[in-house]
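Dear colleague,

Following up on Tuesday's group meeting, I ran the structure prediction for the two-component complex that the binding team flagged. I've pasted the input sequences exactly as they went in, so you can double-check that nothing got truncated or mislabelled along the way. The structure tokens for the whole assembly follow below. Feel free to forward this to whoever is handling the docking comparison.

Inputs:
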Amino acid sequence: MTSTTATPITETPTAAASTSANAIISVRDLTVAFGSRRVLDGLHLDVTRGEILGFVGASGAGKSVLMRTIIGLVPKVSGTIEVFGTDLDSGDKARRDVERRWGILFQHGALFSSLSVRQNIQFPVREYLKVSERLLDEITMAKLTMVGLKPEVADRYPSELSGGMIKRVALARALALDPEIVFLDEPTSGLDPIGAGDFDELVRTLQRTLGLTVFMVTHDLDSLHTACDRIAVLGNGKIIAQGTMADMLASQHPWLREYFHGKRARAVIG
Amino acid sequence: MSGPTLEKIAKGDGLALCAAGSWTARFAPALEKLVGEAEKLTGSRPNIFIDVSQVSKLDTFGAWLIERLRRALTNGGPEAQIAGLSANYATLVDEVRRVKPAVPLPPSGSALTAVLDGIGRNIYGIGETLVALVDMIGAVIAAWFRVWRHPSKFRLTSVVHHLQQVCWNAVPIVVLITFLIGCIVAQQGLFHFRRFGADVFVVDMLGVLVLRELGVLLVAIMVAGRSGSAYTAELGSMKMREEIDALRTMGFDAIEVLILPRMVALVLALPILAFLGAMAALYGGGLVAWLYGGVDPSSFLSRLREAISINHFIVGMVKAPVMAMVIGIVACVEGLAVQGSAESLGQHTTSSVVKGIFFVIVMDGVFAIFFASIGI
């Protein structure tokens, strides 16, 4: 059920009943705890199809935990997570179907170090689709071009790449199966401002051309400003605010004021 | 969701290839077949174009295959056109239009050259390994003298930590395995010696074998597998994450900080473990001799006293620290040779254990020749 159209499509009518019409990810009452420490506490979040959601919060507030809980790497205590209208607790089969339709960019790339760039990108395609070597190579080139890398990079190994290139290759791998959602965990961290700006632009372009929904955990005010349609703020285990950049700037919440009106923020937003 | 189709519709002297349905990754195998067949039409009509107005869904796979078809149909002639492209998909198709033809994998050469190439590299590698080993021995000795002159540089805490890892934590498994080996050697000895009525000589065999050879060799092999591999994996993953580079830039010497404490711990640990192992093997052998062979403990002990001398014990124990050094040097060289990938870490850990055991056995042979020639 791969759909990468730019037009919103509600594929499962049942989902519309419980969540708002266009929510592609819908998190309800999510609680996650490590031992007795509650990291997420009754969190609600909807991500709309086709948007770029920027997700911010103080370090250690649980941004990555939320992302990792949605993609199933961290077990939750209670609550429900629906992606494409499928409850992720409804069995392994349903879960695997959903997993084919999202792509994840880990903070440090998480490229397979013993595979070349080409093999990294082809890995998920090879596992899921029976296509010829020729098409695999062509698709690899298409993905590399899309993320702005030269074809010569294909036969290098991750240890021979720069930080920015690793992020780009990881994005190409996340996009390999043409997912509908991509999760980006601090995609611009560790990149120089020009590289980070290019990356934001890239995410924007891909979102436009492929009709992606992007869930982006970030600290980068530039990214929030230029790339994101909507921003959600995490604090005390809950979403304390969500809306556009303008809403964030207008908010009176003390943490938000500090975050969006601090010295660094003024330099970006002016 | 409907599968993809590609219909041929003749229009005058031209031909329209009408794509319909979902042209997405999910249907990639079918799409590839459709496009492959359509590519054969190149040049069959003067004017062939692709109509995509009926395509319900398009992603990179579909867009690329349409682009590939377009390129094939163009093939030197007038550029084939894509008709009926909706605004949604136009950007995607433009994007894949920039894709250059795939770079093929570099040719790998024939099987024979690959085999010869592999043999050559391995032989060359032996030389490199030996140089690396000598280099490491030199570096460790140099570090040892530096620490000797400035004892404050000696990392006692680190040594104690490693001593716990390689010695104390290894005691149960080493004692268990050597105990069992002692039992087995005694049982086999009794079984065969009994035929000659020479039951009691099993004590001689056990004593000499365990104290001179088996105790230390067996323990050294276990330590190579247990601690040598751990050293390699630790140093290797530190190398991968640039931790060793970080140390170097802070003005620390990796040999002094990481390798010397590990070597010292190993050199202290192996004699202790070898001693415990030898005792456990003798105990196991004695137990079997008593229960299975009817040699009671007091006659076992008196026989043992006659059969072995302190020389046997010294011969065994002298070997232990040397073997520890061999294992430690090999493990550290392999650890520092790890490159950026997980595969490389695995390879070097394996070769650390394999080379460690190999050199331990070689050293044992060298010692045997030496002791034989000086007559101990």
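The mean pLDDT of chain B is 88.

Cheers,
M.
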